[in-house]
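For practice. Supply one:
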Amino acid sequence: MSFYGILILRVGLGIVFLYFGFNQIIEPKAWIDLVPSIFSNFVNLKIFIYLNGIFDLIIGICLILGLFIKIISLLGFLHLISIFLFSLKFTPSGIRDLGLAFAILSLYFLDEDRFNIKNFFRN
């Protein structure tokens, strides 16, 4: 039964990352005001948002397909924690990103064999 819980967690988080990734690629201008101004000194914000959207898409796809879960969960955690920290000044809804960050981090600590559907049918 734990396979189903892990699958639901992976797919649910994957959908969130896919949603935000597609949104950033389709409508980058809507996201520019959410990027901390310090980044505008280093990069073109529109390119930064496109790259962030691609990064979110990669995380989402890997989560849904069960690929590279250990590294993806750590990258996703760091990504969401940084968003949470930067959003503290703007909106209290950033706390949602903190919850998502710890949800994705939980995947890192789970046994990798639980991600494999073949092992589920052996039990």
Residues 74 and 105 are 6 Å apart (CA to CA). The chain has one domain: 2-122. Residues 2-122 form one domain.
